[in-house]
Specification:
single chain; 205 residues; alpha+beta; 12 strands; 52% strand
Length: 205
């Protein structure tokens, strides 16, 4: 399996402003210092994996867990930066996902949400197949059309982000698992990104 890219990547400012009202924030760019991205996995996606006999797993410190009959995947935010004034961001994560079928295991790690304006919103990651590094690829497309953005002095949350399989990732997985059923029409789930921001005192040190 090949290339996975950055994941909070650029969407139009006008589209964002249509989705949410963003209060003015003085600092142009603020570092992210923690938080997490949580994806509520779609039952159709989990059902498709079961039909294909592909078993998903979490790579720590990422987690997969169930709550109220729903399945979630959670990944800690490590570093990055957010500029709400220019509507740009890049947010890095630790942990990842594994997909195993028979003797083949694909590991997806080091997720990056990239909102820099260069490409459509996408989450990228490092892809490893049976221990061999393939590289960084675009994994999941992010649709922020119905998202809700709530910034405060020390946190930014972006909820109701639709997550679908990226076409490049679908092709790579089809090749690795010797199938032909995956495409960018596969709905992964709905994501919520909650990033903790570096405060003013920390930046002055």
């Amino acid at each position: 399996m090949k290339t996975i890219q950055h994941a909070f990547s650029g969407f139009a400012i006008s589209a964002l402003l249509a989705c949410a009202t963003i209060p003015a924030i003085a600092a142009p760019t603020v570092a992210t210092t923690g938080g997490a991205t949580v994806v509520k996995l779609a039952p159709s996606f989990l059902g498709a994996l079961a039909q294909l006999q592909v078993t998903p797993g979490a790579i720590g410190p990422g987690k997969i867990y169930s709550r109220d009959n729903e399945v979630f995947a959670s990944f800690p935010i490590t570093t990055g930066g957010i500029d709400l004034g220019a509507v740009k961001a890049e947010v890095d994560h630790s942990g990842g996902l594994s997909l195993t079928a028979g003797a083949t295991t694909v590991q997806l790690t080091s997720f990056i949400i990239d909102l820099t304006g260069d490409v459509a919103p996408v989450l990228t990651g490092l892809v490893t197949v049976n221990g061999d590094l393939v590289g960084r690829l675009p994994l999941f497309d992010l649709n922020l059309g119905n998202s809700v953005i709530k910034p405060t002095e020390h946190r930014v949350s972006v909820t109701n982000v639709a997550v679908t399989l990226n076409n490049a990732a679908a092709g790579a997985l089809n090749k690795v698992f010797k199938i032909n059923v995956l495409s960018n029409a596969v709905v992964i789930g709905t994501a919520a990104v909650r990033a903790r921001l570096e405060d003013d005192e920390a930046r002055d040190d």
